[in-house]
Amino acid sequence: MSNICYTLTEPSTFPASEQLLYISSSMYEKDWKSMFHSHSFAEIFYIMDGIGSLQVDEQKYPLKTDDILIINPNVKHTETSSADHKLSYIVLGIDNMKFDFTTQNGFCIYNNVSKHYPFLPLLNLMLEEIKQKDEFEENILRSYLSILLRKIKKMTDCALTFHCNTNVPTECETIKSYIDSHYQDTLTLDGLAKLAHWDKFYFSHMFAKTYGIAPINYLLERRIIHSKELLKSTDLSVSQVAQSTGFSSQNYFSQAFKKNTGETPLQYRKRHIR
Hints:
The strands form three sheets. The protein has a six-stranded antiparallel sheet, with helices on both faces. Strands 5-4-7 form a three-stranded antiparallel sheet, with no helix packed on it. A two-stranded antiparallel sheet has the order 9-11. A hairpin with a 2-residue loop joins strand 4 (51-56) and strand 5 (59-64). The relative contact order is 0.13. The protein has helices spanning 119-132, 137-155, 170-182, 189-196, 200-211, 215-233, 238-244, 250-261, 265-273, and strands at 2-7, 19-27, 42-49, 51-56, 59-64, 68-71, 78-81, 88-95, 98-99, 107-110, 162-163. It is an alpha+beta fold. The N and C termini lie close together (10 Å).
């Protein structure tokens, strides 16, 4: 699987509820390992070419060129591709947001979306913009994201809405933002609970209840996201990547990375550099 991924590493200052975590352009190849996974954030896929499927539980749902797939946070899923017509897509990770579908399975697929709006040119603009790495990049990307989400809402004729959870405890919101900005530091459940001024068991329960993921698992997820970017875009050794993203050792980093992605850090780097 070839993949080009660009990650936003700086905390957002744009006054919007949704936050773009990354945008990635991917194509299936023989070395792709399909495995079930979930995220604490929503994902939007635009299928550029090929034939494949989304699998949720025991069910498979077909995907083809010009489809948009939207997956809510914490939905365990995997994507597979036809061997003859390899799947290629652009995917966005979006935090602080979920969609209210009319169905209850946490995802939805919309077919032949170009008849509603030319989504691909907008997504390509976002890919180009994130490469610039200048002072205007973040605000422009947030504006593009806002357009994209509102076009999706219009296309679906209000079949979905996007929103943040308005009942998030201030303590949980504070710690989540703290993890986003300090994931590379040495963080513990005890330390995070102290920052929230809560008992650690109550804090862990409330954080998981609010975001659908335990605080330490959320921290691990953020570290993995940023380690992927370093493996692809720098010459840092695996040990240096582990240290830069807050892992206590190279062995622990390698184990956590393989559990999350299905491959070792070196395998991941080799595949994407190729």
